[in-house]
User: Fold this.
Amino acid sequence: MRKMIFIMLIISVLGSCKANKAVIQNPVYSKIEVDTLWNGKISCRALSIDTDKVWYAGNNGSYGYLSLSSEANFNGTLARESKKLEFRSIAQTTKYVFILSVENPALLYRISKEDSQVKLVYEEHHEKVFYDSMQFFNDSEGIAIGDPTENCPSIIKTADGGATWQKIPCNALPELADGEAFFAASNTNLISKGNKVWLVSGGKKARVFYSGDKGNTWEAYETPIVQGGTMTGIFTADFYDESIGMIAGGNYEKPEQNFQNKAITFNGGKTWALVAENQDFGYASCVQFFPDSQGKAIISVGATGIFYSNDSGSVWYKLSDDKDFLTLRFINKNTAVAAGKNRIVKITFKE
Assistant:
């Protein structure tokens, strides 16, 4: 009798494990539903989800937000004398949204969520200045990175909620190789999780720079992503948590090339393994992990379309031939907002 009870308990436990496994298994999406949120003359690489709004920033000084709940939209334009501003970086705190222009002079604006008031909070003049990406760790501390004006990354930080920013001196930053820089493809070459931050490079070298203390100290990790050319390397990255991360990119000048262009890590970026070599997508502008997917489900947008994987990047499914999307952010586990050439859309993933 006791033996029979013991066997029944084992069967019950095994059945429970199978049930739990089925619960966390990621769906295989076979199609997408696309709803246009906004059409207009814009090139947009910077998105940020704010509850029921999506904030955006793009070329020609364009910025604003689009409602995800049928409320009014807001569209604005920023200009600096006769210069056409281009924004490729966006980040937010509870009260403010920040957008950062790329070229000389680099201009960082703070926008109030309450009344849309705009204030210039940082300005940098240098013939080589070009800012690529920006993140906030919390409501007080933020960081932005740009191409080198010397032999190190250009990094500015704030500790007062974005009211003021300071550039970090080169002697406190890692040295870059000659011809190594960053790509402002989708505001995704700077990723933060808690106090940890990763920065990915391209050009002559394709490396991952890691800091465990919000950018105060750095380590450099090699990657197998294609490198050596002006437009080769890592264009985008995402981390599901502090261990699981994905990098992608490739050769911008050979967008169909689908080898040495995507890799995954399970140890926080120390080592990387190539996935789907000579298969699936070529040049990628943006990769993002699906929420609540245990780090297995990933989406990619870029020059060969929209691709999806539910097994950490080993196999990918093509969901669309649309090559116009440059960046994407998730609203929830099966809905995202994407932007690129002349439109911003909501994408719903369907099985």
Observations:
- The chain has a mean pLDDT of 93.
- The domain at 28-350 is CATH 2.130.10.10 (Methylamine Dehydrogenase; Chain H).
- The first helix runs from residue 2 to 24.
- The radius of gyration is 21 Å.
